[in-house]
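INTERNAL TRANSFER SHEET
From: sequence group
To: structure group
Subject: Serine/threonine phosphatase

Please process the attached sequence and return the structure record in the designated field. Keep the field labels unchanged so the import script can parse them.
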Amino acid sequence: MTEEEAGFLFETGAASDRGVVREHNEDSLGAFPEAGVWAVADGMGGHQAGDLASRTIVEELASLGLPVSAMDLRARVLERIERANLRILALARERQLATVGSTLAALLIHGQEFACTWAGDSRVYLLRKGILHRLTTDHSEVAQLIARGGLTEEEARSYPNRNVITKAIGIQMNPRPETVTGVVEGGDLFLLCSDGLTEHNSDEDLRQAMLTAEPAQLIAARLIEQTLMRGARDNVSVLIVRCILSETEDMAEP
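Return from structure group:
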């Protein structure tokens, strides 16, 4: 049976912590394997407002239903993001708050196709055959400086405006998230995370943590623990998604 003929089973691990410094956790996680969607949202706007912004996105994604194709799944997710965007804008008006919003990093899988849809500096990674691929590009001031050669990755870790993002859900009428697509292979291991993880862990740190064959939940918990030990200045959230090739054979009579 080839990967084109078989489906995938998914093992999910999820963990989140407020960190060492922050009093509240404004991150939200969503795992909906029946729909083929996993998401990390990192709220901003202060306690309650940031909480609500990230939670609003996850609530909308929870209403996806069962898509019939990869294209249908992407369309449903984008429609839910637009709905969440309007709800967050209304929340900011009601509370007379200048800035309420949330980053989003979402993984979508249908059949053998995957897509990453994101806004802000939450990320999606893919570990395949021991090689870690960063699938998203941060929408942030730091990322723009790195792209122009004004900062190195190492210098970016201590840059004063490292938390300034250039795109988020709930900030403007058209959220305009970015999307990339690809093909799933058996054994793929995806990592979705808020920037609280990547602030204290390099890509190589993440690769080493993901190389293990341990359960997805244990990988997620250990990444959180590692980040807490390194100071965790921000909320930190992790989703691990392992793609297992289904080997169920056709049992029909010849």
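Handover comment: Confidence is low (pLDDT under 50) at residues 1-5, 249-254. Residues 8-245 form a domain with the Phosphatase 2c; domain 1 fold (CATH 3.60.40.10).
Transfer complete.
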